[in-house]
Amino acid sequence: MGAPSETYVDPSIAANSGTGTIGDPYGDLQYALDTMTRDATNGDRINIKSGTAEILTGTISLASYGGPTSTAGLIFQGYDSVAGDGGIGVLDGNGGNFTCCTNTTAHFHKHMRFTNTGSAVCVRLGFYCKMVECEADNSTGGGIDLTGNFNAAIKCYVHNVGGVGIEGGMIHGCYIANGTNKVTNAISLDAPGLAAFNIINIDGSSNGITAGNPDFAIGNSVLSSAGTGYGIDAIGGFTFAHMRNNLVEGFSGTGGKGFLMSGDTWGLDYSGAFNNFTNYSGAADDILIDDNETLVASPFAKTGSLPTDFTSASFWSDLYAYFAPVDTGNVYSGFPVGSNQTKGAVGQPVGGGAGGGLLRVNMNGNVFG
């Protein structure tokens, strides 16, 4: 499999025109998909120019284009002037109560924004799909839905959505925040799932992370403002969720819970809770339970202000400055042996700098950067 074929779309043209080259881009994304010939060998990357949103009249259709495969996928990626330069392409649902993009197999998004979808989830993808450094916002129906197997959301920003912020199998290094619309659950894992080193900033009755069977929630930072929900929950029934190295603060409203163990949990290890109505609720069955703490001070530095402009070059550094670890308690970052053993709060960023590194976790819950 070689490099994907390159196609270009400039929404500012807003017309069924063009040949799809960088010098003569298509003027409309749906027109591009209906017109271009799919590269069934290497797949296609459709580069969507930043600056002007692609205003949709319905969910993007691949009926004419055909179905991507695991060896010949389809990529939507934003750009400013040349492919891959970090520009953010925008798909706008125009408040039409439909999902911007939905597909079941081998669809990838990078440097894209999915917005203004009314009561529908912003974007829904399935098997062998991935979203990297994307934004989803302004919906009452949810942000990113990755409910098939072998999928991932990495370093994405989801905010001002109702429903579930991100649902899927692997969710790593993302930031989920409330706005006018408030999530029910910031992250909901599909089994088997992994939520690792995410930052969650919520309030009201919103919950943080729901983990089921067999899911892992590792190294997450969850901050609420007088919340009445929970930070991290191993859901009820016969579940084997493993929660390790997480920090939860601020579920201080009546009934708020830092960690809720409502199922048969493998373990809750090396985590910290601060300023919650109830810090730890329920019981876990893992004999390795160890070193969970009720902290006496906030584990987060809260330096500067939380960022809101995803196009800003300082977005992630501003976020990590706010959630930088404070040396309080005896919580550990990473698996608590050898060189990864560090006193103090679980830190951001992790794994490769600026939250961009990948994470490996074995079935014992051991974390490797």
Task: Let me know the largest β-sheet.
Answer: 18 strands, parallel
Q: Which blocks of ≥5 consecutive residues have pLDDT under 50?
A: 335-340, 349-369
- The strand count comes to 31
The gross shape turns out to be elongated
Mean residue pLDDT? 87
Radius of gyration: 21 Å
Report the total helices. Answer: 2
Give the helix level as a range of percent. Answer: under 10%
Question: How large is the share of residues in beta strands?
Answer: 35-45%
Topology overview:
Elements: E1 5-9, H1 29-35, E2 44-49, E3 54-55, E4 74-79, E5 89-92, E6 101-105, E7 107-110, E8 112-118, E9 123-127, E10 130-132, E11 135-139, E12 144-146, E13 152-154, E14 157-161, E15 164-172, E16 175-177, E17 185-196, E18 199-203, E19 207-211, E20 215-218, E21 221-225, E22 230-237, E23 242-244, E24 247-249, E25 257-263, E26 267-269, E27 272-274, E28 278-282, E29 293-294, H2 315-322, E30 360-361, E31 367-368
Structural write-up:
It contains two helices and 31 strands. The longest helix has 8 residues, at 315-322. The protein is elongated, with a radius of gyration of 21 Å. The chain has helices spanning 29-35, 315-322, and strands at residues 5-9, 44-49, 54-55, 74-79, 89-92, 101-105, 107-110, 112-118, 123-127, 130-132, 135-139, 144-146, 152-154, 157-161, 164-172, 175-177, 185-196, 199-203, 207-211, 215-218, 221-225, 230-237, 242-244, 247-249, 257-263, 267-269, 272-274, 278-282, 293-294, 360-361, 367-368. Residues 335-340 and 349-369 have low confidence and may be disordered. It is mainly β. The strands form three sheets. The protein has an 18-stranded parallel β-sheet that branches.
